[in-house]
Amino acid sequence: MARGMTRPAGVSAKEETALRAQNKILAGIMAGLMLTQPVSAQPARTAESLAGHYYLSGVMETGSELLLRPDGTFDWGISYGAMDSMASGRWATDGRQVTLTARQPEPNAVKFRLGDRGAWNERVTHSFEHRREQEALEHRAAHCPLPSLSSETVPDLSLTAYGDKMPSAAQIASIEEEAQAAWAAAQTALDRLKGNPAWPRDEALVVATDSAIEAFQSKLAAVQGLHEAARIEGTEPAPLVLPEECRVPDFEAEIRAFQGVAIHVFDPVRYERGDGIRVEARYEDGSTQQDMVTGGYAFFPVGTGHRIISITLAAPGSSPEKKAAFPVDLPAASVQLVDAELGALATPLFNELVLPVRADGSLDAAALFRRGAYEKARPSR
């Protein structure tokens, strides 16, 4: 990874590569929307003739549909890899181009419905563990100004490109020695850093130490790649001994000790988690506690013999009077499902989009993809 750039916690190198590829189309869309598209010189068409269901053509690996209704409303969607986005709103035409005006987020329109209550399971445990791990990593990032420590070391398989031959024992041993030397340099830099109480504010010292850690991580990735290619355990350097500020808090102890309730907020229509929804839990003694849905869940501690008697949910940015409150009976180790209609929270990729009408009646998609067109589906016979 480029220096100073960190991979989001919990995202593997393979997933990051996929996300970068998916982001290219977003960059193209946003760049395309800034272009002024020429208006077609073709004869004007009526709104009645333009209404219909269109499908994108001429753009590889991308699926997109556009539904222009006769009543002047539209639905638009795109799917590219793991990325999906939708928009809806109003459309209008002067006969030579179609203008889409997307509806903006409406937090007050979000609706909630109390679903079933279930028991704590492995999926919930995994989400809770991931949540606490992310919080621990965020805590370290806030206190430790060494960005390289936020990067996951992934085995580098590029050094195994020796034609059809596996890396020799000598080649592996050589890289192992280089990795050990890089470890020693990084640990020396860290020890020097730990000897300075004001090190977080010493920019030169931080940069030098971070560079040494990055060099070590690069060699470690090479060693791991060679070991993986040769299918051997091999010798790898010991973990670096970090300053107290850079150590990840012991979140595993909290996980082992936690006893409580999970609130699962999910949109079954959009198949989307309700991240960002605020949840307030009220206990039987009248006390309350708040949490924000992350990864689809909000978590609340509940001891043995105690319970949560009500939950209140609110979408981010919604008015106080738009909160949704539900009476519940949630003892420890229970999971409460809440169905949510989250479409009103979606931020469209565009505010206004102009699609010129081509001579054949298709809609030019260059404003979005620099190529392609939306072609109307032919009515089935």
Radius of gyration: 27 Å
- The unreliable regions are 1-19, 33-40
Helical amount among residues, as a percent range?
Answer: 25-40%
In terms of DSSP E residues, the strand content is 25-35%
> What's the total helix number?
7
Output mean pLDDT: 86
Largest sheet: 8 strands, antiparallel
The CATH topology label of the largest domain is Lipocalin
- CATH architecture name of the largest domain: Beta Barrel
Shape: extended
**DSSP strand count:** 17
What is the H/E order?
Answer: HHEEEEEEHHHHEEEEEEEEEEHE
User: Spatial order of the strands in the main sheet?
Assistant: 15-5-4-3-2-1-17-16
The CATH class of the largest domain, by name, is: Mainly Beta
What is the terminal-to-terminal distance? 54 Å
| The number of domains | 3
* Class inferred from helices and paired strands: alpha+beta
Give your account of this protein's structure.
The chain is an alpha+beta fold and 381 residues long. The chain folds into three domains: 13-104 and 347-376, Beta Barrel (Lipocalin), CATH 2.40.128.360; 108-124 and 259-344, Immunoglobulin-like (Sandwich); 145-242, no CATH class. 29% of the residues lie in helices and 28% in strands. The protein has seven helices and 17 strands. An eight-stranded antiparallel sheet has the order 15-5-4-3-2-1-17-16. Strands 6, 7, 8, 11 and 14 form a five-stranded mixed sheet that branches. Strand 2 and strand 3 (73-80) form a beta hairpin. The longest helix is centred in the middle third of the chain and has 28 residues, at 203-230. The radius of gyration is 27 Å and the shape is extended. 23% of the residues are buried.
